[in-house]
Amino acid sequence: MNDNEKYDPEEFDIKDGVLRTYYGNSEEVTIPYGVTKIGQEAFYNNETIKKVNFPDTVTEIDDYAFFECENLVEVNNSKNVEKLYDSAFMFCFKLEKIDVDNVIEVKACGLLDCKNLKKLRFSKNIKKIGDNAFYGCENLNISIPETCKYVDSGEDYSFEGCKSVVIREVKN
Protein backbone atom coordinates (compact mmCIF):
# COMPACT_ATOMS: atom_id res chain seq x y z
CA MET A 1 0.00 0.00 0.00
CA ASN A 2 1.31 3.41 -0.94
CA ASP A 3 1.92 5.53 2.18
CA ASN A 4 0.10 8.36 0.42
CA GLU A 5 -3.11 6.32 0.07
CA LYS A 6 -5.95 8.03 1.84
CA TYR A 7 -7.94 6.19 4.47
CA ASP A 8 -9.30 7.16 7.83
CA PRO A 9 -6.97 5.90 10.62
CA GLU A 10 -9.92 6.24 12.99
CA GLU A 11 -11.64 3.56 10.93
CA PHE A 12 -8.84 1.26 9.72
CA ASP A 13 -5.54 -0.01 11.13
CA ILE A 14 -3.48 -0.90 8.04
CA LYS A 15 0.18 -1.86 7.97
CA ASP A 16 2.20 -3.22 5.02
CA GLY A 17 -0.96 -3.84 3.00
CA VAL A 18 -2.68 -5.81 5.78
CA LEU A 19 -5.93 -4.47 7.20
CA ARG A 20 -5.35 -5.41 10.81
CA THR A 21 -8.45 -3.93 12.47
CA TYR A 22 -11.63 -2.17 11.47
CA TYR A 23 -12.78 0.33 14.12
CA GLY A 24 -15.77 1.79 12.31
CA ASN A 25 -19.45 1.12 12.74
CA SER A 26 -20.79 1.46 9.19
CA GLU A 27 -23.22 -1.04 7.67
CA GLU A 28 -21.33 -0.81 4.36
CA VAL A 29 -17.52 -0.85 4.38
CA THR A 30 -15.24 -0.19 1.43
CA ILE A 31 -11.75 -1.56 1.99
CA PRO A 32 -9.10 0.99 0.92
CA TYR A 33 -7.25 0.35 -2.35
CA GLY A 34 -3.84 -1.20 -1.77
CA VAL A 35 -4.92 -3.56 1.00
CA THR A 36 -3.75 -7.03 -0.04
CA LYS A 37 -4.87 -9.02 2.97
CA ILE A 38 -7.73 -8.83 5.45
CA GLY A 39 -5.89 -9.64 8.66
CA GLN A 40 -6.65 -12.08 11.42
CA GLU A 41 -9.80 -11.05 13.34
CA ALA A 42 -9.96 -7.68 11.50
CA PHE A 43 -13.79 -7.61 11.66
CA TYR A 44 -14.20 -10.25 14.38
CA ASN A 45 -17.73 -10.29 15.85
CA ASN A 46 -18.71 -7.02 14.14
CA GLU A 47 -22.50 -6.91 14.48
CA THR A 48 -23.01 -3.77 12.37
CA ILE A 49 -21.46 -4.62 9.02
CA LYS A 50 -23.87 -5.83 6.31
CA LYS A 51 -21.88 -5.26 3.15
CA VAL A 52 -18.15 -5.14 2.40
CA ASN A 53 -16.57 -3.99 -0.87
CA PHE A 54 -13.04 -5.16 -1.68
CA PRO A 55 -10.60 -3.38 -4.01
CA ASP A 56 -8.97 -5.51 -6.72
CA THR A 57 -5.83 -5.68 -4.56
CA VAL A 58 -7.18 -8.06 -1.87
CA THR A 59 -5.91 -11.63 -2.41
CA GLU A 60 -6.14 -13.19 1.08
CA ILE A 61 -8.64 -13.31 3.92
CA ASP A 62 -6.92 -14.41 7.11
CA ASP A 63 -8.09 -16.54 10.06
CA TYR A 64 -11.29 -15.35 11.72
CA ALA A 65 -11.28 -12.14 9.65
CA PHE A 66 -15.10 -11.95 9.52
CA PHE A 67 -15.83 -14.51 12.25
CA GLU A 68 -19.31 -14.04 13.77
CA CYS A 69 -20.22 -11.04 11.60
CA GLU A 70 -23.74 -12.35 11.91
CA ASN A 71 -25.37 -9.51 9.92
CA LEU A 72 -22.94 -9.62 6.97
CA VAL A 73 -24.98 -10.30 3.82
CA GLU A 74 -22.76 -9.40 0.89
CA VAL A 75 -19.06 -9.46 -0.02
CA ASN A 76 -18.41 -7.63 -3.30
CA ASN A 77 -15.47 -7.66 -5.70
CA SER A 78 -13.75 -10.60 -3.99
CA LYS A 79 -12.82 -11.94 -7.43
CA ASN A 80 -9.06 -11.71 -6.81
CA VAL A 81 -9.12 -13.51 -3.46
CA GLU A 82 -7.03 -16.68 -3.69
CA LYS A 83 -7.05 -17.92 -0.09
CA LEU A 84 -9.73 -18.10 2.58
CA TYR A 85 -8.00 -19.03 5.82
CA ASP A 86 -9.38 -20.86 8.86
CA SER A 87 -12.85 -19.72 9.91
CA ALA A 88 -12.62 -16.60 7.72
CA PHE A 89 -16.43 -16.30 7.44
CA MET A 90 -17.50 -18.80 10.12
CA PHE A 91 -20.90 -18.01 11.68
CA CYS A 92 -21.79 -15.32 9.12
CA PHE A 93 -25.33 -16.68 9.19
CA LYS A 94 -26.82 -14.10 6.81
CA LEU A 95 -24.07 -14.17 4.16
CA GLU A 96 -25.68 -14.61 0.74
CA LYS A 97 -23.06 -13.45 -1.75
CA ILE A 98 -19.32 -13.95 -2.16
CA ASP A 99 -17.31 -14.44 -5.37
CA VAL A 100 -14.88 -17.37 -5.26
CA ASP A 101 -13.75 -17.45 -8.89
CA ASN A 102 -10.02 -17.34 -8.18
CA VAL A 103 -9.91 -19.10 -4.82
CA ILE A 104 -7.15 -21.71 -4.70
CA GLU A 105 -7.76 -22.89 -1.15
CA VAL A 106 -10.52 -22.75 1.46
CA LYS A 107 -9.07 -23.72 4.83
CA ALA A 108 -10.85 -25.40 7.75
CA CYS A 109 -14.27 -23.95 8.61
CA GLY A 110 -13.79 -21.17 6.04
CA LEU A 111 -17.52 -20.67 5.44
CA LEU A 112 -18.92 -22.88 8.20
CA ASP A 113 -22.58 -22.23 9.08
CA CYS A 114 -23.18 -19.57 6.42
CA LYS A 115 -26.80 -20.71 6.33
CA ASN A 116 -28.06 -18.21 3.73
CA LEU A 117 -25.31 -18.84 1.20
CA LYS A 118 -27.12 -20.39 -1.75
CA LYS A 119 -24.67 -20.90 -4.60
CA LEU A 120 -20.91 -21.18 -5.09
CA ARG A 121 -19.14 -22.19 -8.26
CA PHE A 122 -15.39 -22.58 -8.09
CA SER A 123 -13.16 -22.24 -11.14
CA LYS A 124 -10.45 -24.69 -12.10
CA ASN A 125 -8.10 -22.80 -9.73
CA ILE A 126 -9.43 -24.50 -6.58
CA LYS A 127 -6.94 -27.07 -5.30
CA LYS A 128 -7.84 -27.71 -1.66
CA ILE A 129 -10.93 -27.57 0.54
CA GLY A 130 -10.33 -27.77 4.27
CA ASP A 131 -12.05 -29.74 6.99
CA ASN A 132 -15.63 -28.56 7.65
CA ALA A 133 -15.17 -25.74 5.12
CA PHE A 134 -18.89 -25.59 4.26
CA TYR A 135 -20.33 -27.53 7.17
CA GLY A 136 -23.85 -26.35 8.03
CA CYS A 137 -24.36 -24.30 4.85
CA GLU A 138 -27.81 -25.83 4.58
CA ASN A 139 -29.05 -23.83 1.58
CA LEU A 140 -25.83 -24.12 -0.42
CA ASN A 141 -25.60 -25.62 -3.86
CA ILE A 142 -21.89 -25.94 -4.56
CA SER A 143 -20.09 -26.79 -7.76
CA ILE A 144 -16.48 -27.95 -7.58
CA PRO A 145 -14.30 -28.79 -10.57
CA GLU A 146 -12.72 -32.20 -10.71
CA THR A 147 -9.34 -30.42 -10.68
CA CYS A 148 -9.77 -29.96 -6.91
CA LYS A 149 -7.56 -32.77 -5.70
CA TYR A 150 -7.75 -32.50 -1.94
CA VAL A 151 -10.73 -32.33 0.39
CA ASP A 152 -9.91 -32.72 4.12
CA SER A 153 -11.97 -35.34 6.00
CA GLY A 154 -13.61 -36.33 2.77
CA GLU A 155 -16.86 -34.90 1.49
CA ASP A 156 -18.81 -36.15 4.50
CA TYR A 157 -17.61 -33.38 6.81
CA SER A 158 -16.49 -30.59 4.49
CA PHE A 159 -19.96 -30.42 2.95
CA GLU A 160 -22.12 -31.81 5.79
CA GLY A 161 -25.59 -30.27 5.55
CA CYS A 162 -25.16 -28.68 2.11
CA LYS A 163 -28.17 -28.92 -0.17
CA SER A 164 -26.21 -30.12 -3.21
CA VAL A 165 -22.57 -30.84 -4.04
CA VAL A 166 -21.63 -31.29 -7.70
CA ILE A 167 -18.18 -32.32 -8.86
CA ARG A 168 -17.94 -31.14 -12.46
CA GLU A 169 -15.61 -31.48 -15.38
CA VAL A 170 -13.71 -28.32 -16.28
CA LYS A 171 -14.07 -27.27 -19.89
CA ASN A 172 -11.37 -25.20 -21.53
Helix content: under 10%
Order of strands, main sheet, comes to 1-2-4-6-8-9-11-13
Give me the Rg, rounded.
Answer: 15 Å
> With helices defined by DSSP (H or I, 4 residues minimum), what is the helix count?
1
Verbal overview:
The chain is built from 1 helix and 14 strands, in the order βββββββββββββαβ. The chain is an all-beta fold and 172 residues long. β1 and β2 form a beta hairpin. The chain is globular, with a radius of gyration of 15 Å. 38% of the residues are buried.
Sequence-ordered SSE layout with sheet pairings:
Layout: E1 12-15, E2 18-22, E3 28-30, E4 37-38, E5 51-53, E6 60-61, E7 74-76, E8 83-84, E9 105-106, E10 119-121, E11 128-129, E12 141-145, E13 150-151, H1 154-158, E14 164-168
Parallel strand pairs: 2-4, 3-5, 4-6, 5-7, 6-8, 8-9, 9-11, 10-12, 11-13, 12-14
Antiparallel strand pairs: 1-2
Give a quick precis of the structure.
The protein is mostly beta strands. The protein is built from 1 helix and 14 strands, in the order βββββββββββββαβ.
